[in-house]
Amino acid sequence: MEQPSEEEITELLTAYALDALDPSERTRVQRLLTERPELQQMLTELRAAADLLPHSLDRPVLPPELRQRTIDYAVGRRRRNEQGPPIALSRRWSLLRVAWSSVTTVLFIGLVVAMVYLNSLRQELSLAIQERDRAQALAATVQASARQLATLFTSSEPVATLAGDGGQGVVFRDTTGQIVVVAVLPPLPADQVYQLWLIEGETAPVSGGVFTVDVSGYGLLRLPTTSAMSGTTLAVTAEPAPGSPGPTGTILMIGKVT
């Protein structure tokens, strides 16, 4: 029979010391011990080590509350199914309170954000309504100006033409004899107006009135019947609102009544 190696012998002796061999393997180890008496010393040492294994384990330590419950149950002071202190329940309620507090905080923040957003929408809607009303008013003004211009061009007689680097204009005498100045000029800032000047010979200019233009650049100014006689020079300047006693700005357009 083939002899086992030293490693196999050590494994067999260890299992033999722990009583972990089947009968055939035990017989084999006993034969080895007979054939090699020096192995008896190794077996003795392995058995001594095996005997110490149970003493090397730590003794289990029971929780104090389990020990007390066992004693109480043994002496009849407590029923077996009696519940202990509601520690887990208290902890659960604590977690629920924390969770509810977090939820209410999130809801409050969401409500504030929603209110700010709604207020912003309300302001935007108000601005949109104002812009709509302004656009409707401008459209009505343009339509009214267009109707007046149509009436002037079809039923009135032009008596002067105004021209210059700043704009152009036509002066009509309507069917009632009233002078109407139609000017095409760029819109001015809110703190300025256009002012018409009547110039007779060498005399100082006299104001014929102030006017503004719409978004399309058209403006109308009506003068009394006797304001602009034949030969009167008409000039337009831009002046600070609500007008000036004498011209301070550059003449934008000029012409003479025929």
Helix tally?
A: 5
By CATH reckoning, the class of the largest domain would read Mainly Beta
Unreliable stretches, pLDDT < 50, 5 or more residues? none
Classify the helix fraction into a percent range. 40-55%
Overall radius of gyration? 57 Å
**Number of E-type strands:** 8
Please tell me the CATH architecture of the largest domain by its name: Sandwich
Q: Would you kindly provide a written description of the structure presented here, covering whatever features stand out?
A:
Keywords: Cell membrane, Membrane, Transmembrane, Transmembrane helix. It is a single-pass membrane protein. InterPro entries: Anti-sigma-K/W_factor, Anti_sigma_zinc_sf, RskA_C. This protein is of the alpha+beta class. The protein is 47% helix and 21% strand. It has five helices and eight strands; from the N terminus they run αααααββββββββ. The protein has a four-stranded antiparallel β-sheet, covered by helices on one side. The chain has a four-stranded antiparallel β-sheet with strand order 5-4-7-8, with no helix packed on it. A hairpin with a 5-residue loop joins β2 and β3. The longest helix is centred in the middle third of the chain and has 69 residues, at 87-155. 13% of the residues are buried.
